Amino acid sequence: MPRTALAPILSALLVTMLLSACVGGSGGGGATYRRPIASKPAPRVQKDDLTLRQCTAKLDALSVRYNAVPYQNQGGGCALVNTVKLLDFGVPSTNLGPMTCPLAATFAAWSRYAAMPAARLYLGSEIVRIDTFGTYSCRNINGNPNMAGKRSEHAHGNAVDVAAFVLADGRRVSVEKNWTAGGPEAQFLRRVRESACKRFPTVLSPDYNAAHYNHFHFDMGGRGGFCR
Fold it and tell me: Is residue 133 packed enough to be buried (19+ CB in 10 Å), middle (13-18) or exposed (0-12)?
């Protein structure tokens, strides 16, 4: 076939191919389009970055070592927002999990500037470990029928339960054994509770109810001034 005769045929084929590229191929007419490539979901961020930055600045000023904890929503009213994990704040502590940054800063300051000096004053020894029952726990308030079904501050990592203090001389002063035993150990425990009441909005002790017979509960919830 002469080259001049092929030119119209090639042109027609090219037009047909271009048109077919614009026709839907999924059973219906209309233009098709390339689906956008799905981007990776944005990572969860803390809900209040400014508050977190201000709080971590306090931890840095106290020379506290910590790790930031990613946002977590456990469902059922349990979530971790603006939380950290304390690594080193001057005295070893057991069972400390995620805790809100304001709680962490307050707990570190209370341990360093209240509990430790009180141990020297009343017990003549240094605190070498603070034993706790933990921080975050997805659960309701215990021991108060008026608040049945309400989530505890522990459900947000906004509370810590302190059980005992281990001293350099080997003694272990516990809320359970020494709160009502009298002597310098009981005086020490009352002193650290009083100092906690000046720092934490809510402080509960064995004087509050039977559920707290063996620990102090400190949390950053409420309006403040609740010290029992």
Answer: middle
Domain that holds residue 209: 49-227
Residue 23 lies in a domain: no
Of 189, 170, 169, which is closest to residue 180 (Cα–Cα)? 189
Residue 103 within any structural domain of the chain: yes
pLDDT digits (tens, 9 = 90+) for 129-175: 999 999 999 998 876 676 666 899 999 999 999 999 999 999 999 99
Q: How many angstroms separate the Cα of 133 from the Cα of each of 12, 29, 35, 37, 218?
A: 82, 67, 52, 48, 11
- Within 111-211, residue ranges assigned H as helices are 116-118, 175-178, 183-197
Structurally, how many domains does the chain consist of? 1
Q: In this structure, is residue 25 part of a structural domain? A: no
What letter represents residue 76's amino acid?
G
> What's the CATH code of the domain at 195?
3.30.1380
Nearest to 107 by CA among 192, 169, 177: 192
pLDDT tens sequence across 164-217: 999 999 999 999 999 999 999 999 999 999 999 999 999 999 999 999 999 999
Residue 151 · residue 141 · CB < 8 Å: yes
